[in-house]
Specification:
By secondary structure, this protein is an alpha+beta fold. The chain contains 24 helices and 27 strands. Among the domains are: 52 residues, no CATH class; 201 residues, no CATH class. It is globular and about 105 Å long.
Length: 871
């Protein structure tokens, strides 16, 4: 019993006692009494009354006909559902008790201006779980199984694993009735779906962001519950009391509409496929106690759709065969009609990859059916995969998928497509290709041009839904000069995988004749789909299939076209976002040459009559951002290591250092392209239209941030490790300091950019010498940190500080004297900064070290901006 009173006063506690007697002469044991305590308190959102009821006599199990009147409409499906007097009932057949069901809750409708992570728009996922409905005596429980540990049912360890892996209880329900033929039970699910149950509500992240204190039942309700053959869809509106609201704080609340899908998982799980670090697939891991390994072994399964040939005999003969069940993606009806064909084409483009696995017409994109064509179709329904279109200014798109936690079988996907991804595509396509691509020289592209870019992004995101992660090593396969060839790019695009962040061809120069500037489904994509989706006849075991797949992988080893490079590490210079070609220095030099051609023409190419200079400013900023990207691509070569995952039966190193000559070339590139003042970035005529005094500072940021990136302790740690292992063949810290000094402290009067750079260098050295740069990563092993480029080093006990001290003294001894007023002041200032570094008088910057004291020091890496398509 809950009541909301419109008053601002603190009200007293009212106690209401209701007594019911069986008869006038009943004894105390025969009497049934119920006490309801109503407590009313004032809050910021009004006065709230809450009730405590104790004790309550449990209602007995009724006859079906007493609970569900004869004329009640039944919604037949997975569970038959009924609505009686505002209450919702599930009729659960005994045959489905204990069956695993996947629950997916999505935001169906959201308030405006939600700005939390990816949970912002209708259609995005809030939660997923596996449920099992179980009966115990006169109750039904929802159990939530865990799949973190496993053992085959035939294994000696199976019983032990079951004893140590108890399924949690999410909710309980009293049985209200047995169904007509006593083959099932009926429960009331009204309070469950109306309640504040985390599994079917908004996320903790959203609750924290808007300071949610609880669910307001008076402003919440069940909209519909619909049953289908293998799923049930429950649509609810939930209003949460919130101290902060994204729209109107006077409501002291935030309202969402949510859709919870409950999908029956296959009774016989799909055969899993073991994951391999040498081929890129999303996957899941579990500790498997059922193997014959003499340890608790972690096994990983890839995520993939279940594809089986309709005609197994024809498949075995090598003919292309359609799958028994096609992968189908529907386009959100909210999508602008002109983009629908391009989104569909991006989906269908993957058929060429599935042909490598022996399937034809394996995947198809379709327009969603109209209400007249299929009144039961819903974009939130977990049976359907959909590209959802969001009216949003976010410049992004993402491609998630939901998989069976038992085997990795992908069951459905809802690609998130933000309207403003088009602005991102326009800016990048302009900045990366306009020098050699006349079609990109416009503030607004034609629908055909934008459609082709949308098609490319659609293919990329659908690739994620097929189980493929980003392959950041793919673009390294193509020689830089090959990307200047029309015949090569017409055939191969910009990389062997559309899953790389190899956007548009910034390498091609005017006159090369290149006309194909973006990626496409490539050699690696076809190979990955073949590896992940090929169907093996003869009922091979998972281990037997792995043996065949291992042979395939070894046949491709060493061929860069089929190389997979993971995302997230700064260790390997081949594994980078937004880069092209096999040599970052050469590719970036071509890219800068094109930026120099584009910049003086931005105003002319973005001209729009009667419009302000917003596009000029935006594109000019993108030119600077692109220039900064090139600096990041080159920096990773210094202290870099190549990573090539292998097994015992493959020869050669897994990790080896980037060659000395290439590291030296990287510093030479900086001396020429960054430390030599990039005055070409200043076009006074164009800057006068929008810049209000920020350009010097913006260029300085690129210069000093790149320099700080070069001088991070993890990078220096790897360089010392290289010197220890490889001696004269290594590019050393001493070599680095010598080469940097030659580019930063050149002869002649330093201009404003050079002065900023010199101060930045001294400050970086000062920090290495005096500051405690420890970062705390509790519970993370040094081996794992090093694999992501966060190579540990104890700065205090390392050679870094002696070398830095010597470098500062050398610079101080060679500083010129005299010059004009600003030059004299600059050198005087540098001398004082060096003196302060060598003899500090101010407190050092201390960042707490990881537990364990001096043994682990992680130097700070610059923050990396997340690029779109990161999901």
């Amino acid at each position: 019993m809950t009541q909301f009173l419109k008053t601002g006063y603190n009200l007293c506690i009212t106690t209401l006692v209701i007594a019911a007697f069986a008869s006038s002469c009943a004894t105390k044991k025969q009497a049934v009494s119920q006490t309801v305590t109503l407590k009313t308190t004032a809050t910021a959102s009004g006065s709230t009354a809450t009730a405590t009821i104790s004790p309550t006599k449990k209602e007995g199990i009724k006859k079906f006909s007493d609970l569900i009147p004869a004329k009640t409409k039944v919604d037949k499906g997975l569970f038959n559902t009924y609505k009686v007097d505002g209450k919702y009932y599930y009729e659960i057949p005994d045959s489905l008790l204990g069956r695993e069901m996947l629950m997916v809750t999505r935001l169906a409708k959201t308030p405006a201006d939600i700005k939390v992570s990816n949970q912002q728009y209708g259609g995005e996922e809030a939660n997923d779980q596996v449920w099992k409905w179980e009966r115990h005596d006169k109750q039904i429980f929802i159990r939530v199984p865990s799949y973190s540990v496993r053992a085959d049912s035939s294994s000696d360890m199976y019983r032990s694993v079951k004893n140590s892996n108890l399924d949690a209880v999410l909710a309980s329900f009293d049985i209200k009735a047995y169904n007509k033929d006593t083959t099932g039970v009926v429960i009331d699910v009204t309070d469950f779906y109306n309640g504040d149950v985390a599994a079917i509500g908004i996320s903790d992240e959203l609750k924290k962001a808007y300071k949610v204190s609880g669910l307001d039942n008076s402003r919440s309700y069940i909209d519909t519950i619909k049953s289908f053959p293998i799923n049930i869809e429950a649509r609810v509106l939930k209003t949460y009391r919130a101290a902060e609201s994204p729209t109107d704080n006077t409501n002291a609340a935030i309202t969402f509409e949510l859709n919870t899908s409950m999908l029956l998982l296959p009774k016989t799980p799909m055969k899993a496929r073991l994951r391999d670090d040498r081929v890129g697939f999303f996957g899941q891991s579990q500790t498997d106690y059922g193997t014959d390994a003499q340890k608790a072994q972690v096994t990983s399964y890839i995520h993939r759709w279940k594809l089986e040939p309709k005609d197994a005999a024809a498949y075995e003969r090598g003919e292309l065969v359609e799958p028994k069940k096609q992968i189908v993606f529907y386009i959100d009806p909210a999508t602008p009609k002109k983009w629908v064909p391009y989104l569909i084409q991006g989906i269908n483009d993957w058929n060429v990859a599935f042909e490598a696995a022996g399937f034809k017409n394996a995947i198809v994109g379709k327009e969603a059916p109209t209400l007249k064509e299929d009144p039961d179709f819903s974009t939130e329904d977990a049976r359907y995969s959909v590209i959802r279109y969001f009216a949003s200014d976010v410049e992004n798109a993402y491609g998630p998928h939901i998989s069976d936690p038992r085997t990795g079988e992908i069951l459905e996907s809802h690609v998130g497509w933000y309207h403003n991804v088009m602005e991102l595509l326009r800016n990048w396509y302009f900045v990366q290709t306009a020098a050699s691509n006349p079609d990109a020289r416009s503030a607004k592209f034609t629908d055909e041009q934008m459609g082709e870019l949308i098609r490319f992004v659609s293919s990329h995101e659908v690739g994620h839904t097929l189980g493929l992660p980003h392959n950041f090593g793919s673009s390294y396969a193509y020689p830089v000069d090959s990307l200047r060839s029309k015949s090569f790019t017409d055939k191969h695009g910009t990389a062997p995988s559309i899953m790389d962040y190899a956007r548009f061809n910034y390498i091609a120069q005017p006159g090369d004749g290149v006309t194909h500037f973006y990626p496409q489904i490539g050699e690696y994509d076809k190979w990955a789909i073949k590896w992940g989706y090929t169907w093996f006849p003869g009922n091979k075991t998972v281990k037997q299939e792995k043996e065949v797949l291992d042979v395939w992988v070894k046949e491709k080893a060493g061929n860069p076209l089929y190389y997979y490079g993971r995302q997230g590490t700064t260790l390997d210079p081949r594994l980078q976002s937004e880069d092209l070609g096999d040599n970052a220095m050469k590719a970036s030099t071509y890219g800068i040459a094109n930026l120099k051609r584009i910049l003086p023409n931005v105003e002319k190419w973005t001209y729009q009559k009667g419009e302000g200079y917003t596009d000029l400013q935006e594109i000019y900023t993108e030119v600077l951002n692109q220039y900064s990207r090139y600096m990041g691509h080159v920096a990773t070569n210094i202290g870099g290591m190549n990573e090539n995952f292998k097994t015992y039966d493959q020869s050669g190193p897994v990790y080896d250092f980037v060659s000395k000559s290439r590291q030296k070339d990287a510093v030479l590139f900086f001396n020429q392209q960054l430390f030599t003042s990039p005055l070409w970035l200043i076009d006074a005529n164009e800057l006068s239209k929008f810049d209000n005094g920020l350009m010097l500072a913006r260029i300085k940021v690129v210069q000093v941030n790149t320099l700080a990136n070069i001088l991070t302790p993890p990078r220096l740690a790897r360089m010392y490790d290289n010197e220890t292992k490889n001696g004269a063949n290594a590019y050393t810290v001493a070599d680095l300091f010598t080469d940097l000094r030659a580019g930063i402290f050149t002869s002649g009067r330093p201009d404003a950019f050079k002065r900023n750079l010199q101060r930045g260098y001294i400050e970086d050295l000062k920090s290495l010498l005096n500051d405690d740069l420890n970062r705390s990563y509790p519970g993370v092993s040094p081996v794992l940190l090093a694999s992501f480029g966060l190579t540990p080093i104890n700065i205090v006990l390392s050679d870094i500080r002696p070398m830095v001290r010597a470098e500062l003294k050398l610079i101080d001894a060679k500083l010129p004297k005299g010059g004009d007023a600003i030059t004299t002041a600059h050198y005087t200032d540098l001398h004082l900064r060096i003196k302060e570094a060598l003899n500090p008088t101010r407190p050092v910057v201390n960042i707490p070290a990881a537990p364990g004291g001096r043994g682990l020091t992680i130097g700070g890496e610059p923050e990396q901006k997340m690029e779109p398509y990161s999901n």
